[in-house]
Design brief:
This protein has 563 residues and is α/β, with parallel strands linked by helices. Helix content is 64%, strand content 11%. The strands form 2 sheets. Strands 6-7-8-3-9-10 form a 6-stranded mixed β-sheet, with helices on both faces. The longest helix is centred in the first third of the chain and has 48 residues. The chain is elongated. Its main location: membrane. It comes from Planotetraspora kaengkrachanensis. Pfam families: ABC_membrane, ABC_tran.
Length: 563
């Protein structure tokens, strides 16, 4: 991703900072202009007090007003700086999080969960500081450029001396900016890797505790720490080196301007007040050196924006406007191929699932079962080929129509919604209480939900569930959602045998009016299906009834250890 894309993202975020960025710009510019007039006012006031300009009594109150004005600009600048950054971060976070969810499962295949959280959290905050850093750093140019002009009006030799020093400071800032951007990128990448490892460790906390492998996991999670330290030290050295260079150049610059001014004063070319003004303009012009701090922040912001742009470059699913054609959920796979990082997950799948049919998808781990389930309802698009629902390619169907037509249940469902009832109805635009209850009954979830303290109104967070109970709520959500196609991706693995048989009875009974695609590991589940699709290495090895396939010992071996 080019730096232009990152800069464009920062520019767009700046436009969404609202009136606060304009206020920050106005106060920064007004303060910079006022700073330019302050040395002159101080010099005129001194000349008036020493008698060099007896008629300049109005300069003292003007100087006081300038000081008050500068204090007010600083106060407004601090307020508007924080507010503009907050607005930019709000817009960026909404865009990034919205895009992540729009891309969906394809995003989590490319980036780990921890890395996504880091980018949507820390990196958004860093990128949002860029507009304020740009405005503040740019406002430093005005006093520096104005100081050169003012010194040229006082004495050209003073201006020449200041320009020579400013060129050295600009060189320091440019080198610092370039090197800091590279170091900050490495630092942020290492941060994301540690976050990704930590999220994985937290997900398996029970397993880690049971195995007594805490120390090993700490070492694994913190494995990128030396690289993080290396980039952090590089950033510190860059800041220190630039700070030392600025600390040397700036005093030398001020001393040189004072030395030249002293010689000009001795020759009678300057007054004491003009020398004071010249000294103040030298200090003001040398203030460009403080741009190093803002340059560092801007470098980190650009690096963070670069990481965000890599997320935003992932294409979200686009939807058409066609409704599904009339039918019972006939599903067609035409030469479907799915790859992940160059590795084929599915290869040239040609398959037709008749409408209203129950099809079990079986195969060993890694055979492509979940990938087939993902493309069947368009959680992801295939790299090649197409999937059709009742004769209409899935990308041509409107989003709302497709999501009403297809219901998904997963092995580890995430229950979203304020209450358990909301979790079952999640995804429905106009939830129907009777439909929710009926779906829960089909999933054998109604009985235990009613035993909760407030039944279906029990807050989800206050309803601790076993793995099997959570799966039943996930199944109920899919049953309530699906109108034509129901996809169960290993969604009954945690159910006991009796419950699994009862849910299967609903699948072949009341839910038989829709197409059912069931990723199965149990022999009983495959036996109850109308058809079985046997996957091996991402390809369809065989397709037929369970009874006809059972004669193959390789097929029987698929279920070894399953019940």
């Amino acid at each position: 991703m080019s730096s232009r894309a990152a800069d464009a993202l920062i520019s767009t975020a700046a436009r969404h900072s609202g009136r606060w960025l304009w206020l920050l710009t106005a106060t920064a510019l007004a303060g910079s202009v006022a700073e330019l007039f302050l040395p002159m006012a101080l010099g005129r006031t001194l000349d008036t007090l020493t008698g060099a300009t007896p008629d300049g009594h109005g300069w003292l109150p003007a100087t006081v007003l300038l000081v008050v004005f500068l204090v007010a600009c600083d106060a407004l600048g601090v307020l508007s700086s924080g507010a503009s950054g907050a607005h930019a971060a709000l817009w960026l976070r909404r865009r990034v999080v919205g895009h992540i969810l729009a891309v969906g499962a394809a995003m989590t295949r490319r980036f780990t969960t921890g890395d996504l959280v880091t980018r949507a959290g820390v990196n958004v905050e860093e990128a949002a500081r860029a507009p304020e850093s740009v405005v503040t750093a740019a406002s430093l140019v005005i006093p520096s450029a104005g100081s050169v002009v003012a010194l040229a009006l006082i004495d050209p030799w003073l201006a020449v001396t200041l320009v020579a020093g400013l060129l050295a400071i600009v060189g320091v800032v440019r080198a610092f900016m370039r090197k800091t951007t590279a170091a900050a990128g490495g630092y942020q990448q290492a941060q994301g890797e540690i976050a990704a490892r930590l999220v994985g460790a937290l997900a398996g906390a029970s397993t880690i505790t049971a195995a007594g492998t805490q120390e090993q996991e700490v070492r694994r999670v913190l494995l990128p720490l030396p690289r993080l330290r290396s980039h952090g030290l590089a950033l510190w050295r860059l800041h220190a080196r630039a700070g030392v260079q600025a600390a040397v150049v700036i005093p030398l610059l001020e001393t040189a301007v004072l030395a030249v001014g002293g010689l000009r004063l001795a020759s009678g070319a300057l007054t004491v007040g003009e020398l004071l003004a010249g000294a103040r303009y030298a200090v003001l012009g040398a203030g460009l050196g403080s741009a190093i701090g803002y340059a560092g922040r801007l470098a980190r912001a650009r690096s963070a924006a670069h990481r965000l742009e890599r997320l935003l470059a992932e294409r979200p699913l686009s939807y058409g406007s066609r409704p599904p054609a009339g039918g019972r959920g006939r599903l067609e796979f035409r030469r479907v191929t799915v790859r992940a990082n160059g590795t084929p997950l599915l290869s040239d799948i040609d398959l037709v699932v008749p409408g209203g049919c129950c099809v079990a998808v079986v195969g060993r781990s890694g055979s492509g079962k979940s990938s087939l389930a993902a493309v069947a309802g368009r959680l992801v698009d295939p790299d090649w080929g197409s999937v059709l629902l009742d004769g209409v390619p899935l990308p041509e169907i409107g989003r709302d129509q497709l999501r009403r037509a297809v219901g998904y249940a997963f092995e580890r469902p995430v229950l979203l919604g304020a209450t358990v009832g909301d979790a079952v109805a999640f995804g429905q635009r106009w939830p129907d209480a009777a439909r929710v209850q009926e779906a829960a009954q089909d999933a054998c979830a109604d009985v235990f939900i009613r035993r909760l303290p407030r039944g279906y109104a029990t807050p989800t967070a206050a309803a601790p569930m076993s793995g099997g109970q959570a799966q039943r709520v996930g199944l109920a959500r899919a049953f309530a959602q699906a109108e034509r196609l129901l996809i169960l991706d290993d969604a009954m693995s945690s159910l006991d045998t009796l419950t699994e048989r009862q849910v299967s009875r609903a699948l072949t009974g009341r839910l038989a009016d829709r197409t059912r695609l069931v990723v199965a590991h149990r022999v009983a589940t495959a036996a109850r299906a109308d058809q079985v699709v046997w996957l091996e290495n991402g390809r369809v090895r065989a397709h037929g009834t369970h009874e006809s396939l059972w004669a193959d010992p390789d097929y029987r071996a698929v279920f070894q250890g399953a019940t």
